[in-house]
Each structure stands twice: as C-alpha cells, then as structure tokens.
Design a protein that fits this description.
single chain, mainly alpha
Length: about 230
Amino acid sequence: MAHPTPEGLAQEEGALCVLATKHLSELQKRGVTSAFLTDYAAKLQNMQDAVAAHTGKTSDKKQLTVGELVAKGELLADIRRIQGGAKRTFPKGSPQLKEFYVGDKYNQSTALLGKWATGIAKAWEKYKTDLLAKGNLVQDDLDTMGSNASILQSADSSQENAKRIDAPEATTAALKAMADVEAAADFIYGAAEAEYAKKPEALGEFVALRPLRYAVERHRKPSPPPQAAKS
C-alpha cells in the first residue's frame, strides 16, 4: 500500500494551492481562504524542517554507535596492556591475576569493560610498585585507561540517549508534521467535493492532484520507533 512521502506532499501542496487559489471565490465559503492556504504552506515548511531533523538525528545515532565501538576498542586495548603487565608480574594461577580479570571472557559489553576498568584501577593501586618494577608498565598506562573509560562512558550515554529519546522523538515529530500537511490537503479536497458535487469537470481537477502525495521518495519516510529493547 502506497504511503504519502515528504516529497509527494510538497508537490501536492504546490499544485493544490495554485488550483485552490484559482477557485478561491467559490471555496472560501467552505473554509478554504487565503489564510488557510498560508497556514497550509506553513505546515509544509514545518514538515520539511521536521523531516530534515529526523534525518539528522538518525545519522547522529549511527555516528554515535560507530563512536562507541571505537571507544570500546581503545579501552579494551588499554586493559589488555595492563593485564599483560600483571601476567608478567604474578605467577600463572596466582589470586592477584583474578583482580585484573585475567582469563575472563569479553562479551562485547560496554558495561563489562567499565567494570573491568574500575576493578583494574583498584588492583593497580594495591600492586603499583610491583607492576611498575616487574610488569613493564608505566603510570601513563593506567591514566590512559582511565581516560578512555570516561570517553566510553560518555559515548555510551550519548548513544543510548540518541537511541531511546532523540531519534524516536524526531521520528514522532516528522510523522506528526506529515499528517498535518496531509490533513490540510484533505480539507481542500473535501471543500471541492462539496462545492463541485454537480460539476465533475471542476472536481476532477482536484481529484487528479491527490496521487502527487505518493511521489517516489528520495529519502525514506520516517518509520515509527521500535520498542526499546530491555537491557
């Protein structure tokens, strides 16, 4: 089933306003006035702004997802460096290695990396002297890990906010703005149907414009946001 598109609604508005203006003297008693057509044009501009915002928020969400993946990779590399130093410092199987999560499996979880970074920072303070002397580590290794842990936390927060709030809100606003434009067009068609019920030729001019709203879209119509997955 075809759905109105932003481009189609814009084409429809342009043609419909010209035709309605041509018949304004007859239609204005049914509510299609110059003021109504001005408001129709304003609704179209609002729709175009909302659709552009939706496109931007969707792009932002994708970029934030990429940014989070990069941040995870950076932090994991920092953690592995310190774990390597711990393995050079303590014998295999020693309880100290557990405090550095040596041997624990990484499941691609941002939360897990945050937990590891926090725990390793505590273990570092306990065994700092040995790590620096025997593990080939330097203080900058810990500082870099802490910095990248903060970057990842910020990236994760921004990405979640974009996924759960910004992008869905932009989608809702775009769909609402499109519906407002469509409703304004339908009001004009309704006025024409009432006014030209016995003048099929005049009515046919209006009916011929309705398919314009389904013009092939260059950008996909905003889709309703999916249910957020439970974490």
